[in-house]
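User: Please check token order:
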Amino acid sequence: MHEAALTWSWLNVLTKERQDAILGVFGSLEEGLKHLNAELLKGLGCRQETIEKTLVRFEEFDVQAYAAQLEKAGIRFLSLADASYPEKLREIGDPPPFLYFKGDLTILNQPCIAMVGTRAMSAMGQRVTELFVPALVRAGLTTVSGLALGVDAMVAKETLDAGGRTVAALGHGLSSIYPQSNARLAEEILQKGGLLVSEFPLDATPDKYTFPSRNRIIAGLSLGTIVLEAPRESGSIITAELALDYGRDVFAVPGPVFDANYEGCNELIAKGHAKLVSSADDVLRELGVIAPKAEASKSLYAPQNKDEEALLTVLTTMPQKVDDLIARAKLQPGTVTATLTMLELAGAARNVGQGQWIRI
């Protein structure tokens, strides 16, 4: 299965809908590969140019060499069939059939918030980003952006400076970083426990189609999307609209009515597509996140056993019921109850009422 998934990923023609069609007819991706020809690709809706390119790539592909290339680069691969595929992303209507990633995938177990905006960031956009990001990091949220110039890069930098971890979803393969000027930032993201993720094969280059595709990953990984500064018809607005389609919260920072950089934000608010926010507290309140006070430092508590480690992995600053913690931590009810009590005594967790718990 793994080799078949890698091969289909390299061909870069499968959407979730096309993959379902193959599984429906052939029962597996392996069997589908055995029948790969122009007729099959045409039946999937591929254009003639794509069909010809795909068949050439298939003929030239060496799956063993590709797997070795991934291993050497420290890049890991997931398919929708893998248990570790991100659950929030799996929930959307059109999840990427395949993902490549580098870094710590477990940070997606914490609540994630997408923060997007224009590449042509203004002084106001910079100030807004500087205001929002540290507060969200203190509240235990993982930030998600696209590592583009402007707001994206600012979100990543501010997150790292605040001691948080961030996810960068890329519109190209992980063999390089675009723009090149953000290559050092990408390395810092990884060094500080973050994550780089892409649905595209290693040799895929960025174009006008890959970035809108990338935007659904940003929206799909996140509880909600904050539009910090965006003109009308920008990529950030696409991300916000995708988040709405996925049933996720959308927030927008308002700006001056004559400022083109805020036309997108203002329009989202005016249409009722986004909630107006002027601070990180507005976002946290809507999401139901219980944030520590600004002066509180991040808990340095080290788990004393495997049960504590399992619970601390799934506990977040969003209140969760004990039944949900049992399911996520995969522990027995009695073990969870006893462990929560010990964590509360140690100052690492808190019962916030109505049988719900948070990590502190």
